[in-house]
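hey can u check if this looks right to u? its 251 residues, i copy pasted from the old doc so theres a chance i mangled smth
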Amino acid sequence: MRIGGIIDISTKDIPERSSMIIFTVGCNLKCEFCHNKFLLNLDVGRDMKVSEIIEQVKSNLLVSGVSITGGEPTLQTDLIDLCKEIQKVDKYINIDTNGTNPTLITKLMPYINRVSLDLKGPLKKTTLEKITGSDLNPELIIETFNIVNDQEEIDFEIRTTYVEKLMKPEDIHKIVTFLKKNKFRGTFVLQQYQYSDGVGEKYKEIYHMPEHVTLLKIIEKYRKKDLPFEIFVRDNVVGYKNIKDIKDFWE
């Protein structure tokens, strides 16, 4: 498995859990706003055997979970073997994915506890191509959604990063409408785009970080609606918080 880096302990990736973060190398998308662009270069990082990774997981007594992210983890041919071995040492396992590999996601289901689906935008081909810079088949992402949503024992988070000058509020409304129509049972997170060096200097003025108030205005209409899922905001003001618990703005 090609590994771009490992963070020994984090409290941000899996809510309410301390976890080890494993970054895999390679992605099939070309999102210009990606803060982990270095992972697109297949020469970065190093090849690690599953047994090597497991030794690090076993020795880390400070975490209860392992989050495998990237890049796109489902491109790794030995991802299933890794999850099987992590399961044996009784760690909670989260997989971050863009949803384009439903076949592998199906095979992973018995060995993981949580899926974080990074939904780049509304499930319309032209919109996704604009946001990701890639030729995407939305049906693959919809298939992944259905696979995970049908597995009630799997915790399910869908998150969308809102990038000003690339996305519009209507994009978020289309996503929420899709989730409601398809009886999404998990948590939807509206994330604030934040520039980092990983994005690249040339994009610093192209894409903008939305203000906290901007995010709240987008999802304000859903605060008192009866939805089968919860909506959270993740930004530099509240961290990670349910919109129903954000009092100052609404009152």
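The first strand starts at residue 2 and ends at 10.
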